[in-house]
Design goal:
Length: about 850
């Protein structure tokens, strides 16, 4: 075989061709280690860059560790930085290599250049090796007393790192006392800020075990110390100012004079260009004045202008963070921002998450004077190319309509949405019209006139379809086609995968029946039949409840299902006031952005909804099909199974035999009653209800005895005559002729099949033994065999059961075909007793 052709492409300078590249680097570094020739530092830089690039892409260059350390003996700050980066990377994962770096890092901590001293101390404290903490105490002590502020800044953070590596070493070296001295006396504000951060973390950690640490932590919240920090706050960096302001929030002033003194000191911080400083200052103002109602309202007015300014400047991300806090303030005091509603108008180039927040705020600040302009603006957004924002704008119009008394213009706008030829606009408008009619039933005539022109076939979203069905049932007396629309929906029951829609359909048909019984009795019978056979637990239970109500008394059923209704005055809020208050306490934190209460480190509660913008959709029902590959006796025919939505529960509802309900769709002769409420049906007259609705279900069916078994006798001790193949399939005798039949399972038997093994155990008591079973609800599959007593004749049975329809398809094969019918009768007799004994 010829060797592969050689290519002329040279390897990338950042990709080594093999171990030889690292070996070459090592030899070159060793040559340059002791050299002091001119330009040697430039050569070292090039080699150091190669080493760092290899390390960055994941190539192991730890073999050049010694050479890198030797080449670090230079005053070139760039080489020092790259060497410290290399050392820090490998020292963390290899403590033995870390020990080699101690000497040269300690030597660099005494360098004349303060930058090198600081970098060396930072690298030394970042090794994070518990066995080397004894080498860290000396350099940290020297660094805390260094004349250069940069070295002191690094040393303070180094003390905090030491505390996390070894608490005992940090406390025994008395570092907290040194940090406290620097906190009160150092002239550099960054050193003071670092000391404040480190002491807060150390004393918070030690407060649970040490009384002295608790006292020191409380001393940080004393009046002299707080005033000391506030008087110097202008000298601090933006990060340090936020740190100081977070501490001030925890301070409890002695009286109102202190409150006004602190607010006067921080007044100019509201004009700061940094949003974090403004929000931290606003939090101080809000918390200090919680007990002063009048002043608290003035604080809202004072912080409003700076926050609105921040929203209009900066990046979209910053605008969103500030808007989230403004949203919280608007929810607490909407009247303060009612005159500034134009600040919350959406700009065309804003991201969706910003627009969504602005729409919520527009909804909150709308009042009688601004409603018209706000609704006009929101209607413009309904035609937005961003569909989620268009949906949100329509919802916002509906929310404003529900909180205002004068809704004339708003209702007209909502009805115009229904006439737009956009599915999502129509869907959202239907949901809002339903809520509007619940609060303002006097608008039913105008709304129903428009809703009646909407075809139910054009509404596909579950919530919108449920709203349309609700209106068809609630106002069926005003909509001439309501019974017929409901009837067509009932006929397509199996095609509706949303349980919410099926529940609304059941209730709407019941309401329509009480108002227009002759036109609705067929639809009601079909709906109850389909509901009783429904696989969803809630739908099944509601259908059964309605059926038993009608059995009991029609008048009572009407009072329960369709009572006189009162207008809804207040709709439930998605957020409780307690949750809002707890989020308000966490002002200037991620809790406000996520709108969730903070429970612990990196953990937020799930009490509130997500902020994600998008349409809500029901989980599609899963269609469970029979696995025909497992058929052993099999017929090629596939079973038909209806995809049934479930409620997520492992419990399977007891299902009724749909064969008893087959007459539901047949037209029944109308009974001569004009008002079902006048019938006053009692439990004894439930048969009339069954006849009226076409259900064919007697109220109390008389117990019937199972057919007596034929004289065919089976061998109870028959042994299994079949063996399993290596693939797990059963090897059986092939019999050409077979008998196929379709049987029904009792409702009790279908319910018992939630545990499939109950059927084999039952049939074993009738000398019918199980070979194998499989499938998944609602389609189950069993294979049985039986042997005739005192003879060698055998029967093979394939049994396929659909628990949803309570139907059983059996295929019987026998070597004596004359006994097939007798065995079929015996099997049917045994199956009829399943679930009843």
């Amino acid at each position: 075989m010829a060797p592969p052709a050689q290519t002329n492409r040279s390897p990338s300078p950042s990709q080594p061709s093999g171990k030889s590249e690292v070996t070459d680097l090592k030899s070159q570094l060793r040559q340059l280690a002791g050299s002091r020739l001119p330009g040697v530092d430039d050569s070292k830089r090039e080699l150091f860059k190669k080493v760092i690039s290899y390390m960055t892409i994941g190539i192991d260059v730890s073999s050049v560790f010694g050479e890198m350390v030797m080449c670090s003996a230079t005053s070139d700050i760039v080489l020092k930085k790259m060497c410290y980066l290399y050392v820090g990377n490998y020292a963390k994962v290899n403590p033995d290599l870390a020990l080699l770096t101690i000497n040269f890092l300690q030597r660099d901590c005494k360098d004349e250049d303060p930058m090198i001293r600081g970098l060396a101390l930072r690298s030394l404290s970042s090794l994070n090796v518990a066995n080397l903490v004894e080498y860290l105490v000396g350099p940290l002590n020297a660094g805390l007393k260094d004349n250069n502020s940069y070295v002191r800044i690094v040393a303070v953070i180094g003390v905090l790192k030491l505390y996390h590596i070894s608490v005992t070493t940090c406390i025994d070296a008395d570092f907290p006392a040194v940090l406290k001295h620097l906190l009160l006396n150092d002239q550099d504000t960054q050193v003071v800020a670092n000391c404040l951060l480190a002491l807060q973390e150390i004393w918070n950690g030690e407060a649970s075990t040490s009384g002295d640490a608790m006292k020191e932590r409380e001393a940080l919240l004393s009046k002299p110390f707080i005033y000391y920090l506030l008087n110097r706050i202008k000298e601090f960096s933006e990060w340090a100012q936020c740190l100081v302001l977070d501490l001030v929030v925890k301070y409890v002033p002695a009286d109102s004079n202190e409150i006004f003194d602190i607010m006067n000191l921080l007044e100019d911080r509201l004009q700061h260009a940094n949003g974090a400083v403004v929000l931290a200052t606003a939090k101080v103002f809000l918390h200090l004045t919680l007990s002063m109602t009048d002043v608290h309202q003035q604080v809202y007015e004072r912080i409003k202008a700076p926050l609105l300014t921040l929203v209009s400047s900066g990046s979209p991300e910053q605008s969103y963070a500030v808007l989230s806090h403004l949203h919280l303030l608007v929810m607490h005091a909407p009247y303060v921002f009612s005159a500034d509603y134009k600040h919350f108008y959406c700009q065309y180039n804003e991201p969706s998450y910003v627009k969504k927040l602005k729409l919520e705020m527009l909804t909150a600040v709308a009042n009688e004077s601004s409603t018209y302009e706000i609704v006009t603006e929101l209607c413009e957004y309904a035609a937005n190319v961003d569909i989620p924002i268009a949906r949100e704008s329509i919802r916002a119009v509906g929310k404003i309509a529900l909180q205002q008394y004068d809704v004339n213009a708003i209702v007209d706008r909502l009805l115009q949405f229904l006439e737009m030829e956009k599915d999502y606009v129509t869907a959202e408008a239907l949901v809002l019209v339903k809520d509007l009619l619940r609060k303002y039933p006097q608008w039913s005539h105008d709304c129903i006139a428009v809703v009646g022109n909407i075809s139910s076939q054009n509404v596909q979203e579950p919530k919108a379809k449920a709203a349309l069905i609700w209106m068809l049932g609630e106002y069926s007396q005003d909509m001439s086609d309501a019974p017929y629309i409901l009837e067509s929906l009932t006929e397509n029951w199996d095609e509706e995968h949303s349980a919410e829609v099926r529940l609304h359909l059941l209730t709407a048909v019941m309401k329509c029946f009480f108002k227009r019984p002759p036109e609705t009795q067929k639809a009601l019978g079909a709906a109850l039949a389909a509901g009783l056979a429904d696989f969803h637990q809630d739908v099944h239970d509601r259908a059964l409840f309605y059926y038993r109500l009608l059995q009991h008394n029609v008048t009572v059923a009407e009072r329960v299902v369709n009572p006189p209704k009162q207008a809804v005055s207040v709709f439930a809020d998605t957020q409780s006031s307690e949750v809002k208050d707890r989020i308000f306490d966490e002002f200037n934190s991620l809790s406000v952005v996520y709108q969730k209460e903070h429970r612990g480190p990196f953990e937020f509660s799930d009490e509130l909804g997500s902020l994600a913008i998008g349409t809500e959709s029901d989980v599609p029902a899963h269609v469970v099909e029979a696995n025909d590959k497992d058929l052993l006796l099999g017929t090629p025919d596939k079973e038909e199974s209806r995809g049934a939505g479930t409620n997520g529960s492992a419990y399977t509802a007891p299902l009724y035999d749909t064969s008893l309900l087959s007459t539901a769709t047949q037209v029944q002769p109308e009974l001569p009653i004009s008002n079902p409420a006048a019938a006053g049906l009692s439990p004894q007259s439930s048969l009339a209800i069954d006849d009226l609705l076409g259900l064919g279900l007697p109220a109390a069916p008389a117990p019937t005895l199972a057919p007596s078994p034929p004289p065919l006798k089976l061998n109870a001790g028959a042994a299994c005559l079949f063996t399993a193949s290596p693939t797990g399939h059963i090897l059986i005798f092939v019999m050409d002729r077979s008998l196929s039949q379709e049987l029904s399972v009792s409702p009790q038997g279908a319910a018992a099949l939630t545990t499939p093994q109950t059927l084999p155990r039952h049939l074993q008591g009738h000398s019918i033994h199980c070979i194998a079973s499989g499938g998944q609800a609602p389609n189950l599959k069993f294979f049985f065999f039986a042997q005739k007593a005192e003879e060698s004749s055998i029967f093979l049975i394939e049994c396929k059961i659909n628990t949803s329809s309570a139907k059983t398809q059996i295929t019987i094969k026998a070597d004596d075909q004359s006994m097939s019918q007798a065995f079929s009768t015996l099997f049917q007799s045994a199956l009829s007793r399943f679930g009843t004994s």
